[in-house]
Design brief:
The protein is of the alpha+beta class and 421 residues long. Helices cover 55% and strands 8% of the residues. α2 crosses α6, α2 runs antiparallel to α7 and α16 runs antiparallel to α17. The longest helix is centred in the last third of the chain and has 38 residues. The chain starts with 8 loop residues before the first helix and ends with a helix.
């Protein structure tokens, strides 16, 4: 992915994230220039044992003469490759002697070394971006992307349209969304968002923060739909694990219409697997927040998951002292850009363990089920964030390019009605 020589630090960071392998939460578009030294070393590693045990004195002599300044060019390149590796990726192998090559051959480290190179390049780009002066919203976005997100699930399973996929990738990489970039080019500085309490003016930015920072927009159903689907799928996971569950949102606060229980897990810890609840039921309440919303930006910019932690604290404060003694309250927080609070993973891990025990299966089978659940949640997350971005961006385009009003056909209608009479 080419970037201009004068690219901003955030663009450089985007390039580094593109090149990260999927297992390190990147796009998996690998850089041959970055990883070629490790690949070249791995080629020699694959034949090192054979050369080291060869009866050919010439082969052993050639191998022992590897250095950056002497020996045949092909062997000098090995030493140069080794010297180009960062210390953290070198794995303390002495590449200039037979013992070092044998050690490297035994370890089989190509995967680890290439990943270390890419991770280090990403960390350097991230440090440069921060040193260059990130805004609080940019820092909040980067932190929110450090959790489970889009690339956890493989692209073919995301079921996104082309426009939605492009918008989701641009949002993750912090690259301008086309609709908002057009608005900025035309001099737009604010976006008018109408709500029940009146219009709100939101500063337009090319990266989509303004699309996620306000919830009061009429007709904004995306996050409500997301929350409902999360509730449904988490209930399904619980039932799959054999946990007694009620998703009908029964009233659990006497004399109140408050229903802080999207999912009510019946029984006790031996049934639902949530240890902090002990002998109590668990009232799990799904909440979706945006890391770039003004309420949460300071906390989200300070640490990954800050917006989710804020939302959980607010939920506990709202319902403190209101729940029956036999109910344990568990808010489950999801951030818009991808971060999922660890309590969600802990709860699912308990479900998976319960499922494996019920099926008399080894624990690693529960781990496989947990990974499948996490991928499904990541897919749901990506789909609704993409649709939210696209639908709101389309409204921005409509505001910039108002469609012509429909033609007045009242006279035609009257004539037709008259003929019909």
């Amino acid at each position: 992915m080419p970037f201009d020589a004068g690219a901003s630090t955030i663009d450089t960071l985007a390039a580094a994230r593109v090149r990260l392998p999927v297992s390190l939460q990147g796009c998996g578009i690998r850089s041959a220039v970055l990883t070629s030294p490790a690949a070249y070393l791995a080629t020699w590693r694959s034949v090192a044992n054979r050369i080291a045990t060869s009866s050919s004195g010439a082969a052993r002599a050639a191998l022992s003469q590897i250095s950056p300044t002497s020996g045949p060019p092909c062997l000098r390149a090995v030493a140069s490759a080794r010297l180009s590796l960062p210390a953290s990726a070198e794995l303390a192998c002495k590449m200039t002697d037979l013992d070092g090559f044998t050690e490297l051959a035994a370890k089989g480290v190509q995967h680890e070394v290439t990943h270390a190179l890419e991770a280090q390049a990403h960390a350097a780009a991230l440090a440069a971006a921060r040193a260059g002066g990130l805004t609080a919203a940019e820092q909040a976005h980067l932190h929110s992307c450090s959790g489970a997100f889009f690339f956890t699930a493989r692209l073919p399973h995301l079921q996104l349209s082309n426009g939605e996929a492009v918008a989701r990738v641009q949002r993750y990489l912090r690259l301008p969304l086309s609709a908002l970039a057009a608005a900025v080019r035309r001099g737009a500085t604010v976006l008018v968002v109408g709500g029940a309490a009146g219009n709100v003016l939101v500063a337009v930015d090319p990266h989509g923060d303004c699309l996620l920072s306000v919830y009061a927009e009429p007709g904004n159903k995306e996050w409500n739909t997301f929350s409902c689907q999360l509730r449904s799928v988490l209930g399904r996971f619980a039932r799959q694990a054999g946990v007694p569950v009620d998703t009908s949102e029964p009233k659990i606060i006497p004399g109140s219409n408050l229903r802080p229980n999207d999912i009510l897990l019946e029984g006790q810890v031996s049934d639902h697997g949530w240890a902090p609840a002990g002998s109590r039921k668990v009232s799990a309440d799904v909440t979706v927040v945006s890391a770039v919303c003004a309420t949460h930006v300071p906390a989200a910019a300070a640490a990954p998951g800050g917006a989710a932690v804020n939302a959980i604290k607010a939920k506990h404060s709202e319902y403190r002292g209101k729940l029956p003694d036999n109910v344990h309250f568990l808010p489950l927080a999801f951030e818009a850009d991808g971060y999922t609070h660890l309590d969600v993973v802990r709860l699912l891990r308990g479900f998976a363990s319960r499922w494996a025990e019920r099926k008399n299966l080894p624990p690693h089978e529960g781990g496989r089920l947990l990974r499948a659940w996490k991928a499904e949640l990541a897919t749901i997350h990506a789909r609704y964030l993409a649709r939210c971005l696209v639908s709101r961006a389309e409204k921005v385009l409509d505001a910039l390019n108002p469609r012509a009003p429909p033609p007045d056909v009242s006279d035609v209608d009257a004539q037709l009605l008259g003929q019909g009479g």
